[in-house]
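Onboarding guide, step 5: your first structure request.
Type a short instruction followed by the sequence, for example:

Predict the 3D structure of this protein.
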Amino acid sequence: MKFLHIADLHLDRAFEGITADNLPERTIIWHDIVASAIQNQVDLVILAGDNFHQSRPSFMIQKLFFDGLKKLEEKSIAVFLIFGNHDYIRDNQLIETFPSNVYAVMGNAVETTTLKLNSGESVAISGFSYHQPWISESRVSEFPARSTTDFHIGVYHGELGSSNYAPFTLTELNDKNYDYWALGHIHVPTRLANNIYYSGTPLGHNRKETSSGVNLVTLTKTGLSVEAIDLAKVIWRDVVVNLHAESLEGVISEINQAILALAESSDQTIFFSILLEHVGDYADELIVRIQSGELQELLSAYTKQRVIKIKILSFKLDQFRTELPLSLTELNNLITQLDLEKVLLPLSNNRIVQDKHLIDDTVMTEIKQAIEQQIQLDFDFKEANQ
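The system replies with structure tokens like these:
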């Protein structure tokens, strides 16, 4: 049998920190996933949680999602989906009933669906959905013993080790003797074992998500093969440019060539964050040109002449990065201790905030992650003096 393993689609999530015009439509990734499933003639599509970025997705995003499910139904492609910590189930949130090809786990208990494929093979698929943003205990013990079907697949949205997101161990998963575990929650494509995979997010939404993909999995009675497919129209890249030029013209040329070297082989739109090292005598001038936006504008004009889609997010000069007298571990501890509820308390009475459930545990976590990410971009770290 053959199936697509997708996780962390976050279909209604915006690109973070982007103000550029004419951005690619981020929801096109769902159209491309559906097209890939049809093109590869898969038997099944597995969506391993966080299909949406929030538990109250907009009506139009839901319509787009359901339209894709119906296209898969037309091709007799089954869909098994669960809900994760971001899109955890609320009552009366869905605008449509799932089409007949979709097996959605609506409860927080582990459910198993058994399918008979056109090939005559049979497969059992087991999974659970979140009903709240946090699950502090492992759920693996609730998964059934391996079925007598030809194949058995586990679908699990959680985190290896200790966490608030259904923590699990590899020993637990291996003991079930399933043919494949389709994991969600970690956005980086990761192979934990021969048959245990995080597929990663299909589309990066911020500068930390520099890898993306979906897994095309083929199961046979003698083994499995996993092919990572990158369908993203947008990718994020951090570039360090070590300057050697002795003129401003040469500096600009070196930056331009470094960008082009990475971009010319790609038909994707690339969001670049660029760190300039050894700027030398041109630091003051470059700072003025960066702050005014002129350097980004000039380099964009150069790259457009080569028909390359590039968005330059930011420039940083290495000698103007401040070094903080603490370690990254200490930084993480400080951020964890932030009392964001007190900071955001004035917003809690805002009707829009209340209606959209904007202040909940998941949002608090995302704010802390954004703070940590931005500090790491702007500062260097060292161990604090004893």
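Each response can be followed by summary notes, for example: The chain has ten helices and 17 strands.
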